[in-house]
Design a protein that fits this description.
The complex is a heterodimer of chains A (635) and B (238). Chain A is mostly helical. In chain A, 72% of the residues lie in helices and 3% in strands. In chain B, strand 1 and strand 2 form a beta hairpin. In chain B, helix 8 packs across helix 9. Classes of the chains: A mainly alpha (635), B alpha/beta (238). At the A-B interface, helix 1 and helix 7 of A face helix 2, strand 6 and helix 3 of B.
């Protein structure tokens, strides 16, 4: 025990000796807590005043409801219901649900409104009352105490509903910021305590101490956990303090009440502590796995996004799945926060989410400690550097793939939304081709041999041409099979059609030549090239094909592209030249887009088209087999 | 003090590399035992097994009577280890570093021991500056003090003078001589022949993972004229 305490004191001393970083942690907690919430409050206020003011209602009893339903006609767009209104009903054309009642001299229409619809409802209720005034004369209105000269109609979003609506919004934002904060802090401190020690050689100094090795590693884990929990707690406490000091007034988000009371703050601290345990375990695993800063920083982006992704689940409306969502690590905390801040957390659900979070946190910590105990994480650096020196770039290939997926699916798609053709060209040249070259250079693998850049023999080039005309048939047959399981997404096909609005030669340049060169550089060149230094050619082809498929992230396209990847990978290994596959890949895409230019994208699956492609494939294969040495494929 | 018997370390790969292949030697109390070899000969791997950074794939090794496999903590408690890659914490001062390491070595009075070492190695003038700001020579003094914090009977030094200028290296060699006089067993790995001639009583020459010669420095010099000639002749003959 004293050994552990000594090691932990050592770790905490190291943390304490970085005042700049500590200030950054504190600053982030405050910026993503009170400051962020104040910003959101300001934004909500601006949005509300832009949409027109909505009267603040009180929680009135539904009284004197009787006369009003009799006033409403078909076509008023008003339906008065007595009882709770489900949250997800939307304002269909000519239809409004709500509580209408008479309150002294006013007609009040109360429902959980979207701000934007309030004016429309106001208009309709006014018309209704006006009609009563003209058709039935003053008698009826006077009977219920309304003065027709001053018809007062008020449309209210009820206080509780407004609060829960806004609280719900805050509940979607706050967990995300908390997870982001914890992930950043946790990853950074884990890199500092584990990865940096490996790189600076202090790991070796530490591991030759008498103290048991597991104590050293546990102390590091404890330091990361303590830092993360502390920053999470600071986040919650700073929200409480800012509100108590009057710096954070949140009527737009939560109504006028004090939201962050001692009790709710305590709940937030407990939740952020449990979340911190989950996040810190993952961060420590990444930092322990990575032999150096370079790999750790490359891995951290996908890990960060992977941890943030479950918080997006809270964007879903509450449904029958909610108890299941409460079982997903990280998501349950977000879900719990959202329901709680929305004032809609049933006790059972709260306990379920809390219990699940506690179980996840326990499992994450347990698994992390077990792994650290059994994997000698601090030795990894020595081992990995030796491997790299011996020309083994296997782990680098995985890191490069992870990075390319993240870049492609965020930057690439963003660029394509901005401008389809330009975005595609950008994705191919900068993200895919650029990353391939940068990655190989960055990891220090020999460029020419890793990427197989040598020129092909004429015979191999001919093989590439043959493969290029064979692949569309192979791909379409594979697609026919796999689309039985998962059909192509409509937007994939319409994207292909939208692309064909440009002149065909330009389309072929961007959608055939660029992918032919750039995707081959990344998947067959960099990734397969680095993988095979560890695994040998066969497994490297299989793995790189799987990665090639996964980059296309759409269920139906993954197996199809993986099959094509297998062919292209085999071509590279057999011919030793990247350009053979590049020619084949370019021709494959060119054939498919040329056909798509003349038939509907949907008809690519037409039996006639597929039959023609298969026939072409068979002719190519037959011609190759019949002619020795092979000639370029007949058209 | 150090008994190594048929020690083996195999690195996995295609094909596997036998980095250390049946190494045996013995270093006694009050002697400096040299481990000579070219880069990649297996010196560092052998020493890393002796300080339990790596686990052996075959053979046995005992340090101060403790087996490296069954009693790694007792082994590490008896060894002061210093290599090119045993770094200092740049954020800590020498004093903090010595106290913290003393605590982790579980010695009785870490603060007192730190003061004692600061005085002995002349660290006082810079004991409260961060290690990151120290010169190479200052860092080396702190590293030595760090390795001695638990007063180990055995010192394992892996190419400790690499990257040091002549003056600092001189101070270091004097420290090794003092350690011998204090009765410690010193295992000294190097490929610098002049250091071997000056310091070592006996040497083992390691080549491609095997011991190709184990002899006294005097015998090596008598046979070949200088240690360097003896080393080259032995390695070429292997």
């Amino acid at each position: 025990m004293s050994a552990f305490v000594a090691a932990l004191r050592h770790e905490l001393l190291l943390v304490w000796r970085q005042p700049g970083i500590l200030a950054l942690y504190v600053g982030m907690a405050v910026a993503l807590g009170p400051v962020g919430l104040a910003g959101m409050e300001w934004w909500m206020g601006a949005a509300e005043s832009a949409a027109g003011s909505v009267g603040k209602g009180r929680d009135l009893p539904i009284s004197a409801l009787d006369p009003i339903p009799g006033w409403i006609r078909d076509g008023d767009g008003l339906v008065v219901v007595d009882g709770p209104i489900t949250e997800d009903d939307t304002l269909d054309e000519g239809e409004v649900y709500g509580h209408a009642f008479l309150d002294g001299g006013r007609v009040v229409f109360q429902r959980p409104l979207r701000v934007q619809t309030a004016n429309k409802v106001q208009e309709r209720v006014e018309k209704m009352v006006e009609r009563v005034a003209t058709e039935r004369r003053e008698g009826e209105l006077a009977r219920v105490g309304l003065d027709p000269a001053t018809i007062a109609v008020e449309v209210e979003a009820t206080e509780r509903n407004a609060e829960s609506r806004h609280g719900d919004l805050a509940g979607r934002v706050l967990p995300g910021t908390l997870v982001f904060l914890l992930v950043v802090v946790s990853l950074f401190s884990a890199f500092d305590t584990l990865t940096k020690e490996k790189e600076k050689g202090t790991a070796e100094t530490l591991l030759t101490l008498r103290i048991p090795r597991r104590m050293v590693v546990w102390a590091k884990f404890a330091a990361v956990l303590a830092t993360t929990v502390a920053v999470g707690a600071l986040w919650a406490v700073s929200l409480f303090l800012a509100q108590a000091a009057g710096l954070l007034v949140l009527p737009n988000l939560f109504g006028d009440g004090q939201v962050f009371t001692l009790r709710t703050t305590l709940i937030l601290v407990v939740l952020s502590g449990l979340l911190a345990a989950q996040v810190a375990s993952v961060a420590v695993a990444v930092a322990a796995w990575a032999p150096n800063y370079r790999q750790a920083s490359i891995m951290s982006t996908p890990v960060m996004l992977g941890l943030l992704a479950p918080t997006a689940i809270t964007g879903f409306q509450e449904s029958d799945l909610t108890p299941l969502l409460a079982m997903i690590p990280v998501a349950n905390v977000s879900l719990g926060s959202r329901l709680w801040l929305g004032g809609e957390l049933p006790l059972g659900m709260g306990l379920l989410a809390l219990g699940a979070t506690a179980v996840h946190a326990g499992l994450a910590v347990g698994a992390s400690v077990w792994w650290l105990d059994n994997s000698d994480p601090l030795d990894k650096g020595l081992d990995a550097e030796a491997r790299r020196a011996m020309g083994d770039f296997g782990t680098d290939a995985f890191a490069l793939f992870a990075l390319s997926v993240v870049c492609f699916w965020f930057l690439g798609l963003l660029a394509q939304t901005t401008h389809l053709l330009g975005g595609l060209a950008f994705s191919q040249i900068v993200i895919i081709g650029g990353l391939a070259l940068l990655g190989v250079g960055y990891f220090g693998a020999p460029m020419r041999s890793t990427l197989s850049l040598r020129a092909p023999t004429p015979r191999n080039l001919a093989l590439g041409v043959v493969a290029g005309f064979t692949l569309p048939g192979v791909g379409q047959v594979a697609a026919m099979f796999f689309t039985l399981i998962a059909p192509f997404r409509r937007d994939t096909l319409s994207g292909m059609e939208a692309l064909l609005d440009w002149p065909l030669p330009l389309v072929l340049l961007v959608a055939a030549v660029l992918p032919g060169v750039c995707e081959e550089l990344l998947f067959r060149g960099a990734i397969l090239g680095m993988l095979r230094t560890r695994t040998g050619p066969v497994l490297a082809v299989v793995l790189s094909s799987a990665m090639f498929g996964l980059l296309h992230l759409e269920l139906a396209r993954i197996p199809v592209t993986a099959v094509i990847g297998l062919v292209l990978g085999t071509l590279l290994v057999r011919t030793g030249s990247l350009w053979v596959g590049a020619v084949a890949h370019t021709l494959n895409n060119a054939v498919l887009f040329s056909i798509a230019a003349y038939v509907d994208a949907d008809d690519l699956q037409n039996p006639l088209v597929v039959g023609a492609l298969v026939a072409m494939a068979l002719v190519c294969i037959g011609a190759t087999a019949a002619t020795r040495p092979p000639e370029p494929a007949p058209r | 003090m150090i008994e190594v018997d048929a020690l083996v370390k195999v690195y996995p790969g295609h094909p596997p590399v036998r980095a250390v292949d049946g190494v045996s030697f013995e270093a006694r109390r009050g002697e400096v035992f040299g481990l000579l070899g070219a880069n990649g000969a297996g010196k560092t791997t052998t020493l890393r097994m002796l300080v339990t950074l790596l686990s052996p794939d075959g053979g046995t090794a005992r340090v101060n009577g403790h087996d490296v496999r069954t009693a790694p903590e007792a082994v590490r408690g008896s060894v002061g280890y210093l290599s090119v890659t045993t770094g200092l914490y740049e954020r800590l001062t020498p004093r903090e570093m010595l106290v913290s390491f003393g605590r982790m070595q579980q010695i009785a009075d870490p603060v007192g021991r730190a003061e004692q070492l600061i005085a002995r190695f002349g660290i006082g003038a810079f004991a409260d500056q961060r290690c990151g700001r120290l010169s190479t020579g200052m860092k080396q003094k702190v590293s030595i003090a760090r390795a001695l914090v638990h007063d180990p009977p055995v010192l394992i030094l892996d190419e400790p003078t690499v990257g040091l200028d002549v003056l600092v290296a001189q101070t270091f060699l004097e420290f090794v001589e003092t350690a011998r006089e204090e009765g410690r067993a010193v295992l000294y790995s190097t490929h610098i022949m002049s250091e071997v001639e000056r310091l070592c009583d006996r040497v083992a020459i390691i080549h491609e993972g095997r011991i190709v010669a184990a002899t006294s420095v005097a015998a090596l010099v008598a046979e070949h004229g200088t240690v360097e000639k003896g080393f080259v002749a032995t390695v070429n003959g292997a």
